[in-house]
Write a structure and sequence with these properties.
Elements (H helix, E strand, L loop, with lengths): L4 E5 L4 E5 L2 E6 L3 E5 L5 E5 L8 E10 L3 E10 L2 E9 L13 E4 L5 E4 L1
Antiparallel strand pairs: 1-4, 2-3, 2-10, 4-5, 5-9, 6-7, 7-8, 8-9
InterPro entries: DUF427 (IPR007361), DUF427_sf (IPR038694)
Pfam families: NTP_transf_9 (PF04248)
């Protein structure tokens, strides 16, 4: 794993909301810190209402984590495009984020409760 990436269990319980709907809540979330960037909360997939998420055509690449599949969120008021991502086959050293979802904070609400 790249020395600048740290993964640890996130303290407490975390929730993700979009359009007023709770998409997930977890006390088993992971906190990933990469260099000086703000930390990102990764939710276990089984704690997310995956019925609201659809794979998008967007795939991005991180040299340290691998390829990230992006997801659109379908809510009552419409679609939030590329609002979430998942490293479905993460690189060696960051395997803990496999089967987890992360969300763009500017598109949804992610907060500790």
């Amino acid at each position: 794993m790249a020395d600048h990436i740290k993964i640890r269990e996130a303290d407490g319980t975390w929730v993700v909301r979009a359009g007023g709907a709770v998409l997930g809540e977890s006390s088993r979330a992971l906190e990933l810190t990469e260099g000086s960037m703000p930390f990102v909360i990764y939710f276990p997939r089984e704690d997310i209402a995956m019925a609201f998420l659809d794979k998008s055509d967007t795939v991005t690449h991180c040299p340290h984590k691998g390829e990230a599949q992006h997801y659109d969120i379908e809510i009552k008021s419409g679609t939030i495009q590329n609002a979430a991502w998942s490293y479905e086959a993460p690189k060696t050293g960051v395997e803990r984020i496999k089967d987890h979802m992360a969300f763009y904070a500017e598109k949804v609400t992610v907060e500790q409760i």
